[in-house]
Amino acid sequence: MVDSSETIQEIAYKLMLEQNKNEKILNGPTERTTFVLGSKGVGKTTMINNFLDRNESVKPTLALEYSFARRTNLSGQSSQKLIGNIWELGSLANSHQLIDVPIKSHGLEQFSAVIILNLSEPSELSNDLESALQGLKQSISNLYSDDEIRRFRHNIIENGSFKDHPDINTMEVMPCTTVIIGGMYDKFENLDPEVKKHVVRFLRSVSHAVGATLIFYSNKVSSLSKTARDVMNNLLFGSPQNPIRAVKTDYNEPVLISHFSDSWEKIGVMPSNSERISITFTSQIQQTKSKENKEVNDPTKDPNFREPIIDDLRAMKDEELFRLIKNSEMKVKFDSFNLANSPFNYLN
């Protein structure tokens, strides 16, 4: 029923909004978000740049970086503009508030997380993976109620028709689509076979426990770069629908396992959760503090972040501060000397 008090322009505007809403429902989401986080220096920015076809020098990501990609989806006689938001977290250390930002900005409905780990440092894998997973879980818990989180998990399981998976009742499925990428595979493939076996079993177990896709990656191996690119395209634009065409679980080869296609039986372990799996892995490969927990270098002294005007002003202020400190020290010394020689000093 039309409100007689409405003008023709207001009615036309409402009809336009309704039409846009119906088109979004018919054609699917027009905007998706992928959040990339993980080990420091593993090549997160390089992977994103390759996906965006950027050919530029890579600088270390200090905090949180945002970029985006556009695609046009041609459907019949109409076309639909698609936007893919990409957020990158520079460091896992003290990052809880930063992790909130992309989730709060875009919501979980069309949100995915990509955790990239350094395979060439097996002694840091457990700490980095646990930090990333716990950071995501904590942020989601801060922003959503338990009922909402259960609904997101239910949607992931139902939409993918995974409710009949034999292990579904023993899994702690993440409330957002999650991909775990083992980076620097070109270095990992030369490690001791026993180490590789433990690493692959650990990553398969955690990925299966949280319902994540697991792939190995190196920007130096063209086939693995293509797979990572296809996975990013799938997350942000929905195509290709099956970026992983063949499952590979052999630890002597690059691992490729789609979410919910593995099982506890295939892995050869008992059902468990990510925390207990990490404890078992730590008993096999001792874990050390990762680069994330080491002191962060002063970016003002990093040649990658030179800003001539700001650097000159900073140098002037540093020199001024140095002079003030020296003057204060001299004043304290003079005051101490005068006090020591004062006739009112009863300690003389």
UniProtKB/TrEMBL annotation:
Molecular function GO labels: dynein heavy chain binding
GO BP: intraciliary retrograde transport; intraciliary transport involved in cilium assembly
Keyword Cytoplasm: yes
Annotated InterPro entries: DYNC2LI1, P-loop_NTPase
Keywords: Cell projection, Cilium, Cilium biogenesis/degradation, Cytoplasm, Cytoskeleton, Developmental protein, Dynein, Microtubule, Motor protein
GO cellular component, one term: axoneme
Keyword Glycosyltransferase carried by entry: no
Predominant cellular place of this UniProt entry's protein: cytoplasm
Location(s) in or outside the cell: Cytoplasm, Cytoskeleton, Cilium basal body
Family: Belongs to the dynein light intermediate chain family.
Protein name (database record): Cytoplasmic dynein 2 light intermediate chain 1
